[in-house]
Structure formats: structure tokens, C-alpha cells
Amino acid sequence: MDYPVILATLLILSCAGFYLGRRRAIVASGGSLRALHSLPSYYGFYIAVWAGVPALILFLVWIAAQNSVIDHLVQAALPDPLRALAPDRKALLMADIRNIATGNVVRAQPDAAVAAAAEHYKRLVELSRWMLVAAMLLLTSLGTFLAYRRINPAMRARNAVERVARWFLIVCSTIAVFATIGIILSLLFEALRFFDRVPVGEFLFGLRWSPQEALRADQVGSSGSFGAVPVFTGTLLITAIAMLVAGPVGLFAAIYLSEYASPRVRNWVKPVMEVLAGIPTVVYGFFAALTVAPFIRDLGLSLGLDTASESALAAGLVMGVMIIPYVSSLADDVINAVPQSLRDGAYGLGATRSEAVRHVVIPAALPGIVGALLLGVSRAVGETMIVVMAAGLSAKLTANPLDNVTTVTVQIVTLLVGDQEFDSAKTLSAFALGLVLFVVTLGLNVIALRVVQKYREKYD
Fold first, then answer.
1. Residue 98 belongs to some domain of the structure
2. Which domain holds residue 77?
3. Of 172-176, 276-280, 429-433, which range is least confident?
4. Is 325 within the bounds of a domain?
5. 20 pairs with which residues across the strands?
6. 86 domain-assigned
7. Average pLDDT of the segment spanning 278-297
8. Residue 124 sits in the same domain as residue 246
């Protein structure tokens, strides 16, 4: 039995428990729902929780421990010569055994011992799944039975269900916190390994980025320069161009849709604008590379300007168009959330609609607008595909938007793909770039929060 089938069966049993608990509560009330402490649906959720949650926890724990347990049992059954292999050779052997057991044959004629181990592995996996199904059914049945017996009109089912929901939210928030901590520690650990080889000052203030390291003495074109200033300069240049497009256009579109447009126009324009958010970034990249970049190059050449085939201006313009829906949608929601009483007060004092928007609505919605712009900046900083296809890979220290540049995310992807040595400074420099980008983004967010708090105090 496959795992999706097991989970689907558990979901069906939980739904059956819900209807069973709801029906039990209605019957226990004697036809008068006022006699119940909680709504009948809470009693249904109570049984559904006891039927599904313990079995789901068992499923997750079982899946997490299954592979290591089965590998240990298979290795214990191997012949003595195979058990005595070195750890790396044994890991390769176990990979072969798993591939043969799952049908991904890696050897034309595997050894008899390996084939027997693969059959043993397959039997253990099948046995583990059926044991898991039996254990989950037992837990589901036991949970349903115990929860069913506890249902009575005086039972505080709502409190119990809300307690479970609160713990679920706590677990989710804890996972998010630990995931963030894990990401930071992984970046920090690998970045420190990089800074052991390359000085921090050279990385932060160096003006040349060429992370090609020589693998042999006579290799050509390997400088090993890790000055990240050109990379961050390109990131800031493209982000600035994108926000110069997305910021004003998105904000003015939000103001028009929320304050001036009729309901009919809003119902047509807003969905059409948000279609831009659903277009894949690779499509924007093709549009930038095949249409915008050649147009900018031809226009620049016609004006006598030295314009590259791939430019920061092309990538920034297309990226700005892509970010417009994010800024517009969030700003529109924030402006609509401004109380109508503020507008009515401004109109009562003789203000026109435009004066009310400038002096009342926008200042009141400023914290949310700043948040929308920050989201747009984060979207621009993290974009990769458009930059690769429209701005190039050259790390140049330039402020000329007609020149080709690169960004931090593009360099991270370039450094980590392909057949690379993970212990080389070239590969580890990707983690250093990510760490610095994280610190810079965090600093910008902290500054923005301070600005938002300062203005928010006037309207609370």
C-alpha cells in the first residue's frame, strides 16, 4: 500500500469520525441542541482529531525512522566480506541495493549477495508498510472509541478542539523559527569556512569578482578574485531600476482602483493586472531577452550610446513590470483598509478627493505601503531568471544601466551548479554572498520597521 493511499484512508476515517461525533452529540442532546455545551460540529471535530492526529504523528515518526532501521537490518544480514567494507564503500553498496529493490537497476548482473540483499530490503519495506497500516488502524480505532465514549452534553468539546488548534499553531510557528535558525546557521557555518581562506575585508571591499580557481599550475583564466562589491552593485542597480518602475506605477494604480475607479472598472482592471503575477518568470526572461533588450540596444545605438546586448536597464524594466501586481495589490488592500470616517472627516472640512487622498488616506496607509514596497524590493533582489537572460553574468563595477551586470542570486546559482568541489573557495563563496545578502536585507527591514512605527503613532 502506497503512502498517499494510507494518508487518504486516514483522512476518510477522520471524516467518518467527524460525522459520527456530530451524530452522537445530537442524539445525546435528546433533540435539544441548547442542552449541548458546544455546537455539534465541535463534537465531530473532537472525534476527528482523536481519530487522525495520533495516527498521523505515528506515520511521520515511522517514515522518519524507517529507512535507517531497514538499512541497519539489511547490513546486519550481509555476508562478512560486505559488512567489513569501508563506510563509503558500504554507502555505495546500500545505494545499489536500494536501486535494485526499487527497480532502478544499476548493474547488468548483480552479485548473488547483492541481489539477495535487495530482495531482503524489498520484503522489509513491504512488511514495514503493512505494520504501519496496522498500527495506524489500531490507533485510529482506539482514539475513535475513547473519544466516542466521552461525548455527553456537558462535555466542553469546543475548549478541547481549540486547545488542539492552539498547539498546532504553536508547533507550526516553532517549526518556522527553527527552520529560520537552521538556514542562518548553515549559511554562517559555510561562510566562516570561506572566510578562513579569503579575508573578510577582501570579500566585502574588493573591486574584482572572478571566483575561478586554478586546479593545476598551468590553468589559464583563473584569477581567484573574490571582491563582492561589483556583484552587490549590480544587484542594487537592477533593483533600483525595477522599483522605479514598480513603485510609482503600482502605487498610483492602487490609488486609482481604490479611490477613483468605479466598481465596474475595478472588477475588470484588478484581475487583469494580477494576471501579471501569475506569469512564470522564465516567460518574463524570454520577453526581456528577445524584445526589450534588443529594443534598448537598437535605441541606444541610434542615439550614439554604447549599449550592450544584455543590459541592467532591460532586466530592471521587465522585472519592474513583473513586480507591479505585488505592490499594487498590497497597496490597494491597505488603502481600502483606511477607515471611511477619515475620508468623511476630510470631506467635511472642505477637502477635495485628491486632497483627502494626499493628506489623509496616504499618510494613514503609509505603513502598509512601505510594507508593499519592501515586498517588491525583496522580490527584485531574489529574482534570478530575468537577470540571467537579460542582464548577463558579468560582474562589473558600474552604474551605467546600459551595461551588462550580474546579481547576487545569479552568482549563487552559477557557483553551486555543475560538477564543483564543495570544499573549494569558489563554491563556499556562494554561502558568503547569501550571508551578506541576508544581513543587508535584515538591516533594511529593521530600518523600515522603525520608519513605519514612527508614522504609525500618529494614526493609532
1. yes
2. 3-155
3. 276-280
4. yes
5. none
6. yes
7. 86
8. no
Any idea which residue has 477637502 for its cell?
351
- How many angstroms separate the CA atoms of 346 and 352, rounded? 8
- Give the cell for residue 340: 471611511
Q: Tell me the Cα Rg of the chain.
A: 30
Cα–Cα nearest to 281, from 382, 391, 386, 381: 386
Domain check: are 150 and 226 in the same one? no
Chain Cα centroid distance, residue 281: 15
Distance CA 414, CA 426 (A): 10
Better-predicted residue by pLDDT, 413 or 459: 413
Taking the C-alpha atoms of residue 171 and residue 148, their distance in angstroms, rounded to an integer, is: 26
**The pairing of beta strand 209-210 with beta strand 225-226:** antiparallel
Q: How many domains does the chain have?
A: 2
The letter for the amino acid at 383 is E
Sign of CA dihedral 405, 407, 408, 411: negative
Q: Single out the residue of 402, 443, 20, 52 nearest to residue 238, CA to CA.
A: 402
Residue 71 has pLDDT above 80, yes or no: yes
CATH of the domain at 431: 1.10.3720.10
How far is residue 16's CA from residue 149's CA, in Å, rounded to a whole number? 16
Most confident residue range from 67-76, 126-135, 409-418? 126-135
Q: What is the DSSP string of 169-201?
A: HHHHHHHHHHHHHHHHHHHHHHHHHHHTTS-HH
| CB of 227 closer than 8 Å to CB of 251 | no
24's CB contacts (< 8 A; 6+ apart) are 43, 47, 148, 151
Q: For residues 309-332, b (16+ Cβ closer than 10 Å) or e, as one string? A: ebbbbbbbbbbbbbbbbbbbbbbb
Give residue 215's Cα distance to chain centre.
36
Residue 225 lies in a domain: yes
Q: Which of 155, 187, 210 is the last residue of a domain?
A: 155
Among 79-83, 101-105, 241-245, which range has the highest average pLDDT?
Answer: 241-245
| Same domain flag for 262 and 387 | yes
Taking the C-alpha atoms of residue 64 and residue 62, their distance in angstroms, rounded to an integer, is 5
- Measuring CA to CA, how many Å separate 335 from each of 47, 55, 326, 373? 43, 46, 14, 14
- Spatial CB neighbours of 288, under 8 Å, sequence gap ≥ 6: 314, 315, 317, 318, 386, 389, 390
User: In terms of domains, do 358 and 432 share one?
Assistant: yes
Whether the Cβ atoms of residue 161 and residue 52 lie closer than 8 Å to each other: no
Give the separation between CA 390 and CA 410, rounded to whole angstroms.
12
User: Which cell is 20 given?
Assistant: 459520527
